[in-house]
Design goal:
Layout lengths: L12 E2 H15 L11 E7 L10 E5 L8 E4 L2 E5 L12 E7 L7 H13 L24 H15 L4 H4 L6 H8 L2 E2 L8 E3 L2
Parallel strand pairs: 1-7, 2-6
Antiparallel strand pairs: 3-6, 4-5, 5-8
Helix pairs in contact: 2-3
């Protein structure tokens, strides 16, 4: 006698796990990103309240000040950044955060360029600081070179034919991803606080 099988609900799609795998492959394949140690980069996501296309898609938070220093002086007072550790006790130097569902409103190529854009922000010294340009626009450069470099590296990575299964989820929009897997889950990391040093 046959018995009816209860249809199992999908367990959910772990966004930060799959995004970390994409980033690891990028840092392995691209010479310009090989200075990055992903084991010291926390990958996170935040939920956006607005459904509009405009806004921040992703951001990189450095856990050190200029030159990789752990302290800075502002208005005559010393400050440090709240430390962040992974479950095994290793200190993180950066937080790579994606804003969902807004990030998934981008085209496939725009998603790749956004990922590389944030990774390219990481200092070549990998010291917890940002890659710095001359002038007031030290984080992006006035010339737009940062964006151009990110787009170039994204195309170069794709041209090296990484496994399609690795980045297949980036071809979906957020609604399709949720319909396919039931829900989207992942790690969330709070923005670290500036702490005064007595």
């Amino acid at each position: 006698m046959a018995t009816a099988r209860r249809r199992e609900r999908p367990q959910g799609f772990d966004f930060t796990l799959h995004m970390r795998r994409v980033c690891e492959d990028m840092t392995d394949r691209l010479l310009e990103l090989r200075h990055i140690d992903l084991s010291r980069v926390a990958v996170s996501f935040s939920q956006t309240r607005s459904k509009t296309l405009y806004g921040v898609y992703a951001c990189l938070t450095p856990m050190r000040f200029a030159g990789g220093k752990t302290h800075t002086v502002r208005h005559g007072r010393r400050w440090t950044i709240q430390r962040l550790y992974n479950p095994s006790g290793r200190e993180m130097l950066y937080i790579l955060n994606f804003y969902l569902p807004r990030f998934f409103q981008l085209s496939f190529q725009e998603k790749l360029a956004t990922i590389v854009h944030e990774l390219w922000h990481i200092s070549p010294e990998f010291n917890g600081d940002l890659r710095r340009y001359e002038g007031r626009c030290y984080a992006h450069s006035r010339s737009g070179n940062h964006d151009q470099q990110a787009e170039r590296l994204a195309r170069l990575w794709l041209a090296q034919q990484p496994p399609a299964s690795l980045y297949a989820f980036l071809r979906f929009n957020f609604g399709d991803l949720r319909n396919r897997y039931g829900c989207v889950v992942g790690s969330r990391v709070r923005t670290p606080k500036l702490l005064p040093v007595d």
